[in-house]
């Protein structure tokens, strides 16, 4: 009996996941009088898809989410813009496009064609039955409207389109739905790159929690293995270590990569009792996460153009072997931290399958990374030979077993990516709430402020029921 | 009795206006068996707001509508793109921005700020009660979000915004509604500039009319002075010279500048019997036309960069005296006909009040035009002194008494410009139809293909009733 008791605890609200959505939900509940909450976090750290790297040389950069997007309407940005502890860089400086063959590609050569391909996708995509990939869209455009553009400019436009699509979504353009990927493209206002790291924002948020909440009520290493909502009154949330959290409401913020797992043998499988409604499970099964990787190259000194904000390396070929990438097979964006925060570093944005390949490297990891990136970096180098990096860091979002990717993208053939949002917003049981970056509509989807807004939304929902 | 008879004629459909809308309407009616139509044109020529200039040196350029806009969805363009008699230039080449102070302004310096101002307008404009001008929007943006941008870049962005707004709408940015002007901004696909002139397109269309229709059934110098629809059966359309055209349907394609005239003493006043319904008249009274002027400078030889498609001269000051313009007070776009059609000419796009001022010049017209434009052209000249033009031509859209402007723009404080479209589409009497470039929604509004589509739409409407 004693043992049974110790394995149970009662809570008004159990929040699953200590990322921005879960933390914001706890904040808003507490601010409105509901302090009887607990956050269960599967991993050994808070922050979810936020991860700030701080190097011995003082470079601060995010391996996960990096920007305040939608700066005009971003509620977090608008809250912290006068906060001296939060530092950001207005990411609107000059960009340089280049490729294996050209050291500088003027943007006018592809810009209007690129926009026309997107418009072509909208005209022929939305509302039509057929779905096709962004790569397929370019082929279709070429066949039907290619006659109006010289070959060299067209190839640049396709290259720029591949880069835009892949580094927006974190995956190869063959996987991305041309039908849905242009709808939410673009943000409301410029991007602000955190130079104090998203960790600084997370700390500010945590500061809004009740005293000692973090130490006492955020339970790390507490993976939820089952949610039982058979009882018409209480919901029982069971963690892997056998503790049962009995509650009135549960807010589920785990990534869809985890939520969609259907194999009970998967170590992160979440069991629902009764099982998730079939439409809900079917909706989740259509969600796909890309993996936008970051590779940080720290050098002794800057040897590239220090006033360029971003270097856009266009690919000159398609991958010949997905398992063994070669230089110039993937479009890459380099963020110039010399301009951003006066540190001689370049941060590469990568996509799948390249990002997963880089994560998988064990032996000679830095040598292999340098083999792939040295040709791209040497092309923007002012010195020869190209200096070797002092240190290389890279992200591992696909490998983190409780995350398994970075954010959802509109996958080809999987239908409208907003369909799942409708299911999540509505839920199938008043007591079971869903939050997280992928549970909001529009340009906040997949963003930190989207997660934040969703946590706030579910707190409001619960509060309205408690009244 | 004989005299009375000769003053009357009967027609199935009377079309008012021999512009693209009216001609297309007659074509579609004839193709579907309704040949008993007549077109009454107030002026002494067909084409309406189409006017192609052909100079002794062989330069062909339009003083009115110049582009196939929306090339991906433009039904006229898609019809003629293989027609060897129609020639066009894909207008997507390199553009050069410059000002009195800078010979070359890199676009990255203002592009993202410009886009952010537009996004700011959308966030704070649409759906809000208050309306303000585009100039006012920039002030508001500066006050609220100006802190994130260095002054020089902000001034460039405001200058680029002024240029975009004024040369899109043909009027000063103080007049333009920030609330409505960004909604329809942009086109679906690149712009195709007619190098054979819009006259060539008009000739192709006229070729689709029944034989001898143009000579026999397009009545020039036949201004309609009254439309009488008291009778429940026939509508009587009376021309200035006293002829009465009795018909089943009348298709009104006259510009809204004329349709809205409320002063019976105006020589172009159109009298309705019974009067236009008050909501209709009120809707029309809110429509404003700008006047996008063209000034053609023909030189002996090209002395500017021949590979630049357009030169964007940003203004460095606001007009000090609207009645006496000074150089650099108005943003101007120059189209480079050396690149476009291998002719040493520059065509300036101008806006009100400058365009109206230029139209008003009588004595020393060319001298005064050159006083205003020489400083802008000398800034892109590779030789000194700047060669004088051989010939100067300019448009006169505001002065043409049956037109009085170029196309409608969203005027500040006048409400949603689409409201009038709803009234026109619906009409107030089945027998009275409205067509013309301003009677269609979306990006075709104000365009030649919009006029064409509206003529086709009203033909279909009438045909569906005649069945």
From TrEMBL, chains A, B:
InterPro entries: Amino_oxidase, FAD/NAD-bd_sf, Flavin_monoamine_oxidase. Pfam families: Amino_oxidase. Transmembrane segments: none annotated. Signal peptide: none annotated. GO terms for molecular function: oxidoreductase activity. Residues 20-462 form the Amine oxidase domain. This is Piso0_004956 protein. The lineage of its organism: Eukaryota, Fungi, Dikarya, Ascomycota, Saccharomycotina.
